[in-house]
Fold these 3 entries.
Entry 1:
Amino acid sequence: MAPSAGHLRPGRYLAFFALIVVVLYALVFFTGSGKATPKLGIDLQGGTRVTLTARTPDGGQPTRDSLNQARQIIETRVNGIGVGGTEVVLDGNNIVITVPGEQGDEAKNLGRTAKLGIREVITSVPNTPAAPPSAPASGAPSAPATAPSKPAGGGGAEGAPAQQPPGSTPSTPGASNGQDAGKNPIEAARAVRQAPALMPKDPKNQQEAAAAQAAQQKALAALTCAPNAADPLEGNDLPGQPLVTCGDKDATKYVLGPEFIPGTEISSANSGYDQQRGQWIVDLSFKGAGGKTWGDFTSANIGKQAAFVLDTDVVSAPTVQNAILGGNTQITGKFTQTDAKNLADILKYGSLPLSFDSSDATTVSATLGYASLQAGLIAGAIGLAVVFVYCLFYYRLLGILTIWSLVLSGLLVYAVLVLLGRWIGYTLDLAGVAGLIIAIGITADSFVIYFERLKDEIREGRTFRSAVPRGWARARRTILASDAVSFLAAAILYIIAVGDVQGFAFTLGMSTVLDLVVVYLVTHPLVAMVSTSKSKFLSNPRNLGLGAVQKLGAQRKSTRPAPGRRANVKEA
């Protein structure tokens, strides 16, 4: 037999639920920032989301260790922006950067490999307009000419302006730089633009020098420098080999020697404004070995150029005017304040172990985010209002218990959302709001199951008081099965889905679990309290929406034979 409602002790259940709510909101107000606001996604508050897709030189899958290392470096770069609420997460082979607010444009450049190296300039030629596709690539200059450069002194370097400002998408050589269609584009570009034959083994050997010059002319002719063109060698150039690349905003083509100082030898980088030159610069400090190498190079190569190469892009190619000792130097170019700061931040935090393509970049304005949040709240309010009207019309006083249970469920869900955003960085987005709205129906469905079981018991002729424990015993199995199916579906969807769909699945699954808490600790105890109430108003079945089924139960009960008596049967 099911236990009677009097044995339930509903006060204990309600007190336990109240304790849960008090503890949750104590954590909300007295831990972390103390603000009772959930963490919102960029589609609700505005911001930028950038998805970076990793690529490897051999086209294979990147290792998990390299992805984690790249995520940590990008996260450090993001923190350098100084915007609160930023997030960097791994999503398969992608790294997703989320920056709320208006400063998200800087996040679009955080995926740069930032592979810096210093190389000697062998020669440089002005870039000429590309020939039509049908014409042979023979329009390269027959003899290299030295690009003009400005003198450097005082421990600094002033040279060719940056090929592309660090704060924007790099303008890099085109994808058709001497590549064969059937080859890996990185390997094909290396075969032409990083061929060992670009430099003679013995510079004094005239035949080797002539062969190297011919190879340089061929590589320069095959190189296409055009704005917004992808360079397969970006972040994938070999430091020990010469390099043919672009610079000077695609105005100059360079032939560079092997890298003699890698970016890992940089100990610090800071942007600043040079009052004498009237331009923004980036101050570099080398580590011990790097500072010695730079001093030796500048001492032995006065009058020659040194190229600062960032992701195969020559950002500065100064002419050495005197020996630069002490381990400090400068990168100059036509930088804006933002460009200089971005470049300094990227160099400061190190280069990435992988190169990335920006496969998606989404920016949502704060106005649109607020409109989306408002629309989500209105949709949720409409859903709640419809459920409230239905419950009041169909269940009356029981409907009021349903509304009260939904309000308490909302308080519980809100506190959990705030704490999850604070503890694990969970952000509520539009998809999550949709999951919460659907969860309203799941929670209301549990109440409907319970109340309809009560009606079934009353139809059998039982009183409301005796129907409550029996109806609950039958309803809870159905509620558990229903919520288990919903939670399992949400869990599977969360595992196999990516992006916004995961937010929908998460809030749906979380709300399903909290639905059980509310039904067990609030709804059933409240119904049990009403069933044992001595108030005539509360115990009146008509006020509970049970008047019709009680009449039907009374009719069925009156037609049943009394216990121990048989119905009279006439014999034919």
Note: Confidence is low (pLDDT under 50) at residues 1-6, 133-176.
Entry 2:
Amino acid sequence: MRFYIATYRNAFRRSYTLSGKQLAKFLLYSIGVFALLMGLYLLAWQVVIYTPMVDYLTAPGVMQFSIYAVHFFQFIVLLPVVILLMKMVTTYFCRK
């Protein structure tokens, strides 16, 4: 997990690049983090279901919030992967 956090933070630094194998490893960690975030999100909904607050929720509101939450998690997890991939590709083409 320390590798993921360090790589996530370094993805936004200009001179930091990864090899293909490191990028694949980071992508697998990103998939795991996305699954963890979705699990925590579903756990939070289970807590909300058993509280009186569920009486004030509507189905369209829940669906819209769920869509926004999934998109937010995807953005947070995949943004560094895309940045690192672009850096890797530009580094590859600039060296030739």
Note: The longest helix spans residues 59-95.
Entry 3:
Amino acid sequence: MAATLPPPRLLPSGDSAVTVEFSRTIDDDANQRVLALDKALAASPIDGITETVPTYRSLLVHYDPCKIGFDALGDKLLPIAIQPPPPVTKARRWRIPVAYGGEHGIDLEDVAKALSTTPDDIVARHAGGDYKVAMIGFTPGWSYLSGLDKSLHMSRRQSPRLLTPAGTISIGGVQAGIQCLAAPSGWHLLGRTPVRTYQLHRNPTFLTEPGDRVTFFAIDHKSFEELDRAAEAGEIVAEQVNA
């Protein structure tokens, strides 16, 4: 019989949600457990649960307190949460085009200087990475990616910007990200992608999901403009490839 894992913490989040916390830090093993629990609950729903929201290190479980209470729900969640995650199955893999530097990546040169290298080297390191979508959050379609090369780990900006462009490709701390909508950000902006990870009237509305794999490839700024027009019209300009 497979060994069980240490139990997560069950934290009340208001009167109709519980946070199932597997770690207090960003951790790929914890994220794997989060996604496994999320999938298990989707496959075998517990009566009373209304929604689940996966994050890097915890799963937020919304429930109807008229159907199930906090303690009863915890008793049902824990036996599932302590089971070892199943082997990772074949994930969807996306190749996402990025126009690096210039007006699309205004922090690229500063990042290169801070890391004592060249902009081309930063692009090569970033585009050479193999990333996993760990969670979606902050704004619709904002894809938080694990797997950033350690040589690119750096503190976030001391002065966050009040507005950064839609499609920004950025790094911050130990994370990489795909920002779909224009929004504030304290991350370092390396480039922009024409890909819409969220588009309200498109099917699918959300392109990336937690557990998907992502790689990037560089395009010139003319290609960006062409692909951006196609994406605005609803075309999925990311490439889905075999894992």
Note: The mean pLDDT is 94.
